[in-house]
From TrEMBL:
Segments crossing the lipid bilayer: none
Top-rank taxon, per record: Eukaryota
Name of this chain's protein: Cytosolic Fe-S cluster assembly factor NARFL
PANTHER family reported in the protein's UniProt record: NITRATE, FORMATE, IRON DEHYDROGENASE
Residue ranges constituting the Iron hydrogenase small subunit domain according to the UniProt record: 411-467
Family indicated by similarity: Belongs to the NARF family.
Length: 477
């Protein structure tokens, strides 16, 4: 099962992933005391460090801790799914808030809202041999028994992300002649990819990246801005938790861009992975298959009746599919019924081309995994990229194979598990973002009722190149 961030910095060597460097190069301040004696450092067999003073007294040294803000501000490594110490991004923190709620008066309690990703739901559904919708109904019961008030589905907020991505692509396509970095538009839903882009390629690559918020942060905006207002509550009175297939989503939620300064609260307070949900079930001695299902909270869920809906395209959100079909229709009047993917160097690098009378009208690609991302960036730097849009994901095979998903059980291969998770994910009825009436109503009642600059802030974000620093000090962990 996936590990959790409980107080140690984990560095891993994953084969095809955005892995961190094995040395942290963040400079540290050493407070020197006057005197000629130089203290000795003694390392015990268990790895514990002791400082040996002049009088022979031994003082145990605390392990250095790197906060999330330290990590985001440091250009020394690439942050990946199992590499960061995050003290307030765990299921233990969720338990702490739930316990505090039970001990507090009603006026001091927080409204706890969970937003579950479709990928996490599919992983748990496969583990318990349930349908995705049945899993959602049973998770609703489980979380509410713990003290959660609402359980939503980020498939709903993903509709906003897909619609905004479509609009942004058309706007970029219209100015491609005067703005040489308008295209290709690179998707922005993967925080591992964003972190890599900011720290490694900075100002060169960032203009290409879509400013549209990811589904997680769209939901953060919905919950802390719109939902809080509808409930007559201050944003900080809501504790918003998301369940995600990827540890990097913890990073995303902690970005300063998603902090509401006036309310002193984050839009997403805590991110737990699919594996952490399984751990919660095990700690509560609960088998999800035995839990009585509850009605779904439909306010912010992509649901029809008692069944959750899914979007067409990849298991990473379907950005290529929806932007491609929308652009083909809006720009060239072509109704695309079926998309044909051409596999290039490997299964994680695929291409889609729209042609008419031998002319290439649109050229899209899906690029998953670090090696393919590197190849894409090198093509861009050489001016050799033929693409108008690229769906970029750090994890090989995309979000269904995220680092926070459930791992294969004994005698099970990862490929077999991934196929089953994908089948559970795709078993849901498809929905078209353009035909979602509830989202259309929210655009009318919420987005259009505020000034354009504020709407841009609620639906989009920005990126920041991290200046590389050279420092001779390397701290090995």
């Amino acid at each position: 099962m996936a590990s959790n961030f409980s107080g140690v910095l984990q560095l891993t060597d994953l084969d095809d992933f955005i892995t961190p460097s094995q040395e942290c190069v963040k400079p540290v301040k050493v407070n020197k005391k006057q005197g000629r004696f130089v203290g000795k450092i003694q390392i015990e067999d268990d790895g514990t460090y002791f400082q040996v003073n002049e009088d022979g007294h031994m003082q145990k040294l605390e392990k250095a801790k790197i906060t999330l803000n330290d990590c985001l501000a440091c250009s020394g490594c690439i942050t990946s799914a199992e590499s960061i110490l995050i003290t307030q991004q765990s299921h233990e923190e969720l338990y702490r808030v739930l316990r505090l709620n039970k001990q507090s008066s009603s006026s001091e309690q927080k409204l706890v809202v969970m937003s579950v990703s479709p990928q996490s739901r599919a992983s748990l559904a496969t583990h318990y041999s349930l349908s995705s919708s049945e899993t959602a109904r049973r998770l609703t019961t489980f979380f509410k028994n713990l003290g959660v008030h609402y359980v939503f589905d980020t498939g709903f907020s993903r509709t906003f992300s897909l619609l905004e991505s479509q609009r942004e692509f058309l706007e970029r396509f219209a100015r491609k002649e005067e703005d040489k970095k308008a295209l290709p538009m690179l998707s922005s839903a993967c925080p591992g990819w964003i972190c890599y882009a900011e720290k490694t390629h900075g100002d060169f690559i960032l203009p290409y990246i879509s400013t549209t918020r990811s589904p997680q942060q769209m939901m953060g905006s919905l919950i802390k801005r719109f939902f809080a207002s509808q409930q007559g509550m201050e944003p900080q009175k809501i504790y918003h938790v998301t369940v995600m297939p990827c540890y990097d989503k913890k990073l995303e939620a902690s970005r300063a861009d998603f902090y509401i300064t006036e309310a002193e609260t984050r839009e997403v307070d805590c991110v737990i992975t699919t594996g952490e949900v399984l751990k919660m079930l095990e700690e509560e001695s609960v088998c999800l298959s035995d839990v009585e299902p509850s009605a779904l909270d439909s306010l912010f869920s992509n649901v029809h009746g008692e069944e959750l809906l899914c979007h067409a395209g990849s298991g990473s959100g379907g950005y290529l599919h929806h932007v491609y079909t929308h652009a083909a229709k809006q720009l060239f009047g072509i109704e695309v019924k079926e998309i044909t993917y051409k596999t290039l160097k490997n299964k994680d690098f695929q291409e889609v081309i729209l042609e008419k009378d031998g002319e290439v009208l649109l050229c899209f690609a899906a690029t998953y995994g670090f090696r393919n991302i590197q190849n894409l960036v090198q093509k861009l730097k050489r001016g050799k990229s033929p693409y108008h849009f690229v769906e970029v994901m750090a994890c090989p095979s995309g979000c269904l194979n995220g680092g926070g998903q459930l791992k294969p059980v004994a005698d099970q291969f990862n490929k077999e598990l991934l196929q089953r998770v994908e089948a559970a994910y795709r078993a849901e009825q498809l929905s078209l973002p353009e035909e979602d009436q509830r989202v259309a109503e929210l655009y009318h009642t919420w987005i259009q009722s505020i000034r354009e600059e504020k709407a841009q802030e609620l639906l989009h974000t920005q990126y920041h190149a991290v200046e590389k620093s050279t420092n001779g000090l390397s701290i090995k962990w």
